[in-house]
Amino acid sequence: MEKDVEKARALTEATATAAAADGITAESEFTLKGFRNFVRTNPKSDRFKVKWFHHVEFWCTDATNAAKRFSWGLGMPIVAKSDLSTGNMTHASYLLRSGQLCFLLTAPYSPYIAAAANLSPESTASIPSFDHSACRAFAGRHGLGVRAIALEVEDAEIAFRTSVAHGAKHSCPPIVLENRAVVSEVHLYGDVVLRYISYKNPVPSDDGENKPDVWFLPKFEAMEENSSYSLDFGIRKLDHAVGNLTELGPAVSYLKGFTGFHEFAEFTAEDVGTSESGLNSVVLANNEETVLLPLNEPVYGTKRKSQIQTYLEHNEGAGVQHLALMSEDIFRTLREMRKQSGGGGFEFMPTPPPTYYKNLKSRAGDVLTDEQIKECE
């Protein structure tokens, strides 16, 4: 019994230490109710106007090959670039797009490249907040992972100032890019930032779709024809971006505090866990519920270590665990992705046990037909 108490105390101390290290120090007044007792309301409480997800940026050490793998595996063409060929001597960034979904893969160049040309790294970077040492430390600690969840907002300057005034830890103050776009950042969790992007004085263009410096960010140029895989697996937008944390309460209070986002859903280990492993989760959303940010924490005392705790150990701290992508036809998307998985695409998780599919009808209701459930199986 004493050993159990000591173990619980050690876990509590470790959790508090890790939460502080993540920069999340908000006082927690949060009480988890769980799915059955949760009543969804939308108080329209955003502190600033949030439109939708703009893009997700991944930091890595080899943006060229990472972008090609994502493009090949997800059916997302590489549509724009910012690298040495465009005058960027600071970092290589490649933009993938499918529908409204944009993934940006970024890796650092040696700082000596810009120095040799008597230029400061900041003068050539297309992502103004990019930092060599931070990117390399990120890659060394986490590997390829999500650095920034970018939201398009009505005014990135107001979003930043409002966020900081309500407790957000600042990461990058508002920077105006060519008097057309504004970028700012605040700390989200772990080494992940929440990036705000807004546009002013947009440049009218009849062929704006072919000008990423218009619809995305300045200093990005369109990829040359036939330089990317011409694929489309039907993925259309980001549905939600999930963060894994050591402790849920402070993170929820922190994010709600500076954004004004409301609780969209709650889940406890009783709702989504098993006797083997489990988690607690809260989903936060903006007024229009176009931005969904679930947050997970591990639970203890199960037979196996919580999958969330395993992630935290492997990732060396909090971070984005997964991204949920919306498809216009999930069955076609999965068929196409499976074709690529053996040749440079993404591996699929092991097939669930038969009981999963037997219970799927009761869980999915009328969302899936009997034929679709059979196809899933």
Automatic annotation (TrEMBL):
It comes from Cucurbita moschata. Belongs to the 4HPPD family. Its cofactor is Fe cation. Residues 52-217, 237-377 form the VOC domain. Pathway: Amino-acid degradation; L-phenylalanine degradation; acetoacetate and fumarate from L-phenylalanine: step 3/6. It is an enzyme of class 1 (oxidoreductase). One of its GO terms (molecular function) is metal ion binding. The keyword Zinc-finger does not apply. This is 4-hydroxyphenylpyruvate dioxygenase. GO terms for biological process: L-phenylalanine catabolic process; L-tyrosine catabolic process. The keyword Endoplasmic reticulum does not apply. Its EC number is 1.13.11.27. PROSITE patterns: VOC. Keywords: Iron, Metal-binding, Phenylalanine catabolism, Repeat, Tyrosine catabolism. InterPro entries: 4OHPhenylPyrv_dOase, 4OHPhenylPyrv_dOase_N, Glyas_Bleomycin-R_OHBP_Dase, Glyas_Fos-R_dOase_dom, VOC_core. PANTHER family: 4-HYDROXYPHENYLPYRUVATE DIOXYGENASE.
